[in-house]
Task: structure prediction
Amino acid sequence: MQFRKITIIGVGLLGGSIGLAVKRLKLAREVAGYVRRAASVKDCELAGAVDYATTDLLAAVSGADLVLLCTPPAQMRSLVEQFLPALKRGTLVTDVGSVKADIVRELEFRFKKSGAHFVGSHPMAGGEKMGVRAAKADLFKNAACVLTPSKQSHPAAVGQIEKFWKALGARTLRLDAAQHDLLVSRTSHLPHVAAAALARLVLDPKHPQSQVGLCATGFRDTTRIAAGSPEMWRDIALANRKNVAKSLDGFIGDLTKFQAALRKNDHRAVETFFATAKTRRDNWCACGAAPASE
Result:
């Protein structure tokens, strides 16, 4: 598989990692990157993530065979409306957003009217560090990547986008956009909320200074993802608010039961809480699927 030109809209951690992987694997003769700030142009090129970066959106997408939207979801619709006139017919377009239903609903028909083919994607990869300097060519190796085609999706386009992610090393699966949003509210969005809540509580400056000194590797590992971009996670949580709220109901309910067991000094219930968690996690690890880093 090789494209003549691939354009990455937003060359940060994910976009930069895509660019590095594409260049290493020689999946395109030309890799262009669009960035908002002139200061970012040099960073992208020095990182080797693109052949060239530009703040000219229309120039970036002109002639592209594949366009990847790697900006925060809240920015995608506006950017798409701006660059649609420069898009050639038959261009493949995908994204990396972690909330899919709104993106598919808002973007699919716009691209179809212009003769392009949009297929939603969500690579379950990333990290707490942001920006192109944190990009890695092997970021997607063994990571799950969900495709969310709809009834309107062009079958050949879905197949080509799937081959692209597989070429980057990802394990692909297809889900309905609404089902995807429900499932990731538990596996991705809820853990970020939990990590943030834990960091807020434990590291509250109202506590004695000795509290911080007692935060060891368990606390560090559990709260690692709380270091992610607040703006990005604000957008994700609000875009998937109904599902995240529903997942929080289940999480809070489980914690409430555990709290009641503690108050009753119920040894069996407390042990069962931990034993069930251990068994389920051990079984998950033993299934052989490498966990995504997001």
Notes: The mean pLDDT is 93. The chain has twelve helices and nine strands.
